Amino acid sequence: MTRIVIVGAGFAGHRTARALSRTLAKERVEIVLLNPTDYFLYLPLLPQVAAGILEPRRVTVSLVRTLPRVRLVLGEATRVDLAGHRVHYTDPEGTRGELAYDRLVLAVGSVNKLLPIPGVSEYAHGFRGLPEALYLRDHIVRQVEMAGAAPHADECGARCTFVVVGAGYTGTEVAAQGKIFTDELHAQMSRPKEPFGPAWRSPDTRPRWLLLDIAPRVLPELDRRLSETADRVLRARGVEVRTGTSIKEATPDGVLLDDGEFVPTRTLVWCVGVRPDPLVADVGLPVDRGRLRVTAELNVPGHPDVFACGDAAAVPDLTRPLPGDDGDGNGSGYELTPMTAQHATRQGDVAANNVAASLGYGTARAYRHHDLGFAVDLGGVRAAANPLGVPLSGLLAGAVTRGYHLAAMPGNRVRVAADWLLEAALPRQAVQLGLVSSWSVPLDTSSPEVARLPGRSRQ
User: Fold this and answer.
1) Dihedral (C-alpha) 368, 295, 168, 439: value to the nearest 10 degrees?
2) Which of 151, 266, 264 minimizes the C-alpha distance to 200?
């Protein structure tokens, strides 16, 4: 029986597996999905998990339930043997295994992007996986509660200060949602007649959020009108937006900005961007900006049995030719598709079609997709969106944004909608679960989707 192995169950991998299972449902083809977890993570709603709006399981969709014709193998890919047509992996218990393949689809996604800034690896935390979101949720609650009991105003202020580096899609939503969350926590703790501690009386101890980016505006990769709407909402909410600014050094007591200001804080959230999974570089094939070079049909040149899609692949964007394009169609004259969920999802469909075509089922086609617009949830009922290029803000943008997320999720729609209704009617549950420790979610990790265990690393 022909075996197709898909590595990674993110937006690209999950969509590839689902499309292949439908296209080849009646054929003698085995589809194997290799992934460290048994769920697909809907990343766009992760900031709402960190802010206490959604329960963690709401943004995780069961792979077994949504992919009934696909065999799931739990494990993290460690090496790809192109000559031997095998993928080597390590399962959750540390046991090594391997999978032979006739067709291989690499959709391993991305990890936190690192910059050579002193102290960042030690004191910052990323935002690419569920463990990081759970840690941040507990950490925020803990800092506000400890601030309430702090004996001095300077310690109280430092614990109530939260710094987010990177004003892209993720960083903007984290800051927007986080400010609402901490303001609500502060209000709940200020209700007793006697404040928690003497420093709590100071007006300087109200939750403070800073959003930093070296770009000249927030959401620099999106339409300027979306950027202006998001900037206006953030500033009105009390978030300190500092563009053209980044950090020079991170310490246990705060961060030093590149303009010389030192900001006392215990929280540094790193959202400066992503880079392809380290497995991509280890494959030993040509890369472009760290992503595996592929044709417009998502096939790896010289390897007709290997395909790649999503953040792992440098896919030529046929809708955006570079100046002087020779029109040869091999991708050399085109920009690369952005590393977004929208492109990854649609590339999964094309990858599935072309893998099936390589086995004699259907005809291969090139990937071509025009952006349909973006939606940024700014917390509460506020959002910024431009569906089909139409700029929206306010309540209408909020309704469109949440409607888009419900439509895009492959499961859990009713549960997510129920949590949104409850959040609108009831106060958030501000408790620490203590399930994820700081050391188990390091910034420099090849597996943000799983918490690090003692003595366990990629082999």
Assistant:
1) 140
2) 151
CA–CA separation, 10 and 80 (whole Å): 19
Distance, CA of 304 to CA of 102 (rounded, Å) = 10
> Token pair of 243, please?
């563009």
Q: Which residue has the tokens 């329960």?
A: 55
- For residue 25, with 0-12 CB atoms within 10 Å meaning exposed, 13-18 middle and 19 or more buried, which class applies? exposed
Shortest CA distance to 308 belongs to which of 339, 273, 272, 335? 339
Beta strand 71-74 with 29-35 is parallel
**Phi and psi of 221, rounded to 5°?**
-85, -5
DSSP classification of residue 214: S
Amino acid at 96: R
At residue 65, φ and ψ (nearest 5 deg) are -75, -40
What are 361-406's pLDDT values in tens digits? 999 999 999 888 889 999 988 999 998 888 888 889 999 999 999 9
Q: Tell which residue, 195, 216, 215, has the closest CA to residue 206.
A: 195
Sign of the CA dihedral running 306, 311, 314, 319: positive
Cβ pair 214, 246 in contact under 8 A: yes
The amino acid that residue 93 corresponds to is: E
Query: Whole-prediction pTM value?
Result: 0.92
Residue ranges of the chain with per-residue pLDDT less than 70: 191-205, 324-332, 454-459
Pairing mode of beta strands 247-251, 254-257: antiparallel
The three-class DSSP label of residue 386 is: coil
d(CA 271, CA 5): 31
